[in-house]
Amino acid sequence: MPLPSNLQVIERGWLSANQVYLWSDNFLDVIDSGFCTHQSQTIELLNLKMQVLTDRTPRFLINTHLHSDHCGGNAALINDFNFKLLVPSAEFDAVQDWNEPLLGFSELGQPCPVFSAFGTYQPNTVITLGNLDWEIHQAPGHEDQAQLLFNPEYKILISGDALWEKGFGALFPNNEGVPNIDGAFATLELIAEIEPNIVIPGHGSIFNDVSQALIFAHDRLAYLRKNPDRNLIHVVNVLLKFKLLEWQQCSQEIALDWFKNTPMLQKIAELLNQPIHDLFQQSLNALVKSNAIKIRMQTLFNA
Ligand SMILES: [Zn+2]
């Protein structure tokens, strides 16, 4: 089934999450806003759309969840287009107070320009974006306050990082050092129950073979549950690769300095009972081996 004509997916990449534009005769709504270093591109893309969609007023900006690659363009979009930002209801106070420990950007060693919300959207309600109705479902696991948006008419799921074609977003250990694997399983079950025909993921292309994606994700989760250390090492690799996506290149010394000063990485080194320098070296080796980065003359390059 094709996508409805008043919906457009902007496939961005792995540093900036995908965006969705939804419009009616009067309004344009946007889901997610990318990473902050891409904000001029985020604005340019929207300006291009606004040239086609004359007479529409920018209305709601929604975040599937508050990770820096999904909400890093919020401040710019609110400033330039006057969007009214709606965040998952449980995150509203943390956003308004800019409560860093709760929002967790610096815990992951990532920047995110300060923004404030206009209001919230709630799980187990329906919200109209563009000219389509979307059911809101809580999607714990990768981010416990993340929300899925599901349109029953076209059976479209906007999954954020809860389900990709091959996997899902990293499962970060909480303050007790435990990732929410049960939550991630429950989210997969929920997706299986609502039976989407089309998934618009937070990263990667739109896909239709939802049962295959669910099987893949289920197997991966089962593997991570059995191998908790593998999960922690995966989180480390994801964070270091993401930093290289942001910086593109940097000296090994600066990367190590960032690594040592990132609370999530300190926590994981402790959980694995490893000196943080060794963990850094191990992650570098893994990323070089998988061709995710290259090292030349003590300089790291994104690959
Ligand atoms: Zn995420």
UniProtKB/TrEMBL annotation:
- What is the designated name of this protein? Glyoxylase, beta-lactamase superfamily II
Instruction: Read off the InterPro entries from this record.
Output: Metallo-B-lactamas (IPR001279), NDM-1-like (IPR050855), RibonucZ/Hydroxyglut_hydro (IPR036866)
Highest taxon, organism lineage: Bacteria
Write down the SUPFAM superfamilies for this protein, in alphabetical order: Metallo-hydrolase/oxidoreductase
Organism of provenance: Polynucleobacter kasalickyi
- List, for all copies, the residue spans of the domain called Metallo-beta-lactamase: 16-203
